[in-house]
Design brief:
12 helices; 8-stranded parallel beta barrel; alpha/beta; TIM Barrel
């Protein structure tokens, strides 16, 4: 089995928890290492298996990610659990390859303006970084997969509209550079369902069987509607964060990622078994909320609860039990 298939089998829907990375990038305070472990404990017990645990960045500037190695090891020590982390430069890539991380995420901006503001490098240079990361990975003999997130894929808060053809060109360049997969990120919450469905289908065709991830933000209230559109268009890997934590410094008023609990509910209403126990997942919020009392948390399920019928009270299902459906898929 290839490293990609091990993480993302083609017959499964995967929901990735990105709260420990995207969710913590702009917080005023952040959980301790022990609290992060408890966060992972609770979500793993609820059935979550994919965790994006941080970014390889200087600890002095980004102390919330100073324990990234410990978080990777915490995930790696669990059966059928997988870790992912961002590497935004060559140093980060080398640090990632010296760790046990399963998935290294590189970022390529859909617009030149955002690329310069976010990474201080051109899009061409960002693609060359992907090439370097893949080369270093291969030379090291590591099984970690490389996932390239196309940020601002549905619109840019600096440059405005983004052409789908440009997003696909960059995705194709990332694959040519050696990436195992790519993702589409609505970094600032510009997209609507029709746009998400269209680009998801086009990305699936371009990927030719490779996984494609969808990363959505709820900045303008269409996050779950966009997730439904992506699923209907064949997406099978979606990002979300516990309580909707997260946000982008280039999206004033952003409310973060789509809420993991609400996404699980959406999938189940569509007949897609996620393998995640909804009540247990809501309970996991206690760790994040108690660790960050000044942060805003969101979510309809946490507020109103799941419907009172046996459908929502069943024990966790294995993701492998997910029914066969048409499939395809940060800020990343």
């Amino acid at each position: 089995m290839s490293a990609v298939s091990r993480l993302y089998p083609q017959d499964k829907i995967v929901l990735r928890e990105v709260g420990l990375r995207d969710g913590l990038q702009l917080v005023k305070s952040f959980p301790s290492t022990q609290a992060k472990r408890q966060w992972i404990d609770r979500e793993y017990a609820a059935g979550v298996r994919h965790f994006e645990v941080g970014s390889f960045l200087p600890a002095a500037r980004f102390p919330q990610f100073s324990d990234i190695g410990e978080m990777i090891d915490s995930v790696s020590g669990r059966e059928a659990a997988f870790s992912a982390a961002l590497a935004l430069n060559e140093r980060g890539a080398k640090d990632a390859l010296s760790s046990n991380v399963d998935e290294i995420i590189c970022v390529v901006s859909a617009t030149e303006e955002h690329s310069q503001a976010n990474m201080r490098r051109s899009r061409r240079e960002a693609i060359e970084l992907v090439r370097t990361v893949c080369r270093l990975r291969d030379e090291a003999g590591r099984r970690a997969i490389v996932n390239v997130g196309i940020s601002m894929a549905f619109g840019c808060s600096i440059a405005g509209d983004v052409e789908a053809s440009e997003v696909l060109r960059l995705a194709d360049a990332a694959l040519e550079a050696g990436a195992d997969m790519f993702g589409l990120a609505d970094t600032v919450g510009f997209a609507g369902p029709d746009q998400v469905a269209s680009l998801t289908r086009q990305a699936g065709s371009l990927a030719s069987g490779r996984p494609v991830s969808i990363h959505l933000h709820d900045t303008r209230g269409l996050g779950l509607a966009n997730a439904a559109a992506a699923l209907d268009a064949g997406a099978r890997i979606l990002d979300a964060s516990l309580g909707g934590l997260g946000g982008c410094p280039f999206a004033p008023g952003a409310t973060g990622n789509i809420v993991m609990e609400d996404l699980v509910f959406l999938c189940e209403t569509k007949g897609i078994a996620t393998g995640i126990d909804l009540d247990a997942l809501v309970g996991a919020r206690e760790i994040a909320e108690s660790s960050m009392p000044g942060e805003a948390f969101f979510g309809g399920i946490a507020r109103a609860g799941a419907p009172l019928n046996s459908r929502w009270k069943s024990s966790p299902k294995l993701i492998a039990d997910a029914p066969s459906k048409p499939r395809i898929q940060i800020e990343t």
